[in-house]
Here is the input.
Amino acid sequence: METDYRKMWEDLGINMKKHDQLLAALPLVYQDIYLTQKNRPKAMEYYDFVISGVHGIRVKELLDAKEDGKKVVAYFCLYVPEELVIASNAVLVGLCGGSNFVDQEAEEVLPRNICPLIKASYGFKAARICPYFQAADICVGETTCDGKKKMYELLNELCPTYTVEVPQKPDTEQARELFYKEIMTLKSKLEELTGHKITVQDLKKSIEIVNAKREVLDKLISTRKAVPPPISGKDSLLVSQIAFYDDPQRFTQKTAELVEELQERIKNKVGVVDANAPRIMVSGCPMAIPNWKLHNIVESSGAVIVVEESCVGTRYTSMGKINNSANTVEGLVKAISDAYLNIHCSCFTPNTGRIEDNVRLAKEFKVDGVIHYTLQTCHGYNIEAAKVEKALKEINVPMLRIETDYSTEDVGQITTRVEAFLEMLKK
Ligand code: BJ8
Here is the structure.
């Protein structure tokens, strides 16, 4: 891949020396965490292929789209409606921010003691390591947590960044109205960027495309209710992570093939672990590529993760199927903006929907325990953990709290705590 794409990366202004270091490290980590798994579904080969060319094939597709006059829109958060970007004739790409590889560059501007996701999101642009970021014409941010909101102001100095206001009390009529207006303003911004006026037909089609993607992801998640589950938590996490930047229609097709294989496995009672392996739900902050740390620890300790209450899990599909029956642009945008406020992020207050989701998912996926995952200094999820724990206690599901970052320094300590938790569950 390196030889094929070096010129493309150079033209994008990539810091080649540092980029080479990154690309040298990733295959080793991936081999160790992913390719050593036993009895993986055959259809995972597609996702292995995507990762093997992570900075090559898809970036080339983005650049080809740009050649054809399209714009590339980058984003970091579920509240940015994919449907709207696709309808504007732009290509949407979810940026990751799941590694501490660029901490040094980020810390030249940002405080040291902030959420690692925020640091990485900014750092990959500052260090010129991410070809997706280099290809982006605009980044769309959101006012979710304070850290991200303020980081986007600084990011705007490196890449044009437009920030959407997300209301924080979603159950009120004012909030729905505000978000609708925000999304309408985003629509105008996108139209300005792409020179394409969004039509009813554009929106109907894009809603259909994204509905299909969410539906297939939902089916994938559901297969994990089986005992034993037909796919590991690590593999399912990887599929969800790739959902953010792959071509949506190809992704849907490939994931449908995976789901079909998994359903066949379920029929034949083929699982990836022993039926007695403890079933764990991970709940909390998102995990961006290549953040596979917790999943790897848990599954290397003999348990299996069967569901993620997370933006790389059920939160991504939680708005369900968006209704595209309206026959006006305004009606369709309203359907989108209302649906997106069903994403239960901890930036909401109160956020009862998320607490209820945790209880419902723990029952539906027959989990033995929950690991609440917080990225360091993420106050929203960290504080909300108390409510999640209390609600789970009422249905007798124990919870372990893990707060961590992207370093490997605490792997030993987390492993010890996870092993003790699993021992406790077995008893
Ligand atoms: S919808 S979870 S993707 S905001 S950056 S809140 S970890 S301190 S990512 Fe998120 Fe959208 Fe919500 Fe999902 Fe905490 Fe870090 Fe903030 Fe974070």
Observations:
- The chain has a mean pLDDT of 97.
- Residues 77-79, 115, 117-118, 144-145, 147-148, 285-286, 311, 343, 345, 347, 375, 378, 380-381 surround Double cubane cluster (CB under 6 Å).
- The chain is about 55% helix and 10% strand.
- The CA atoms of residues 359 and 392 lie 6 Å apart.
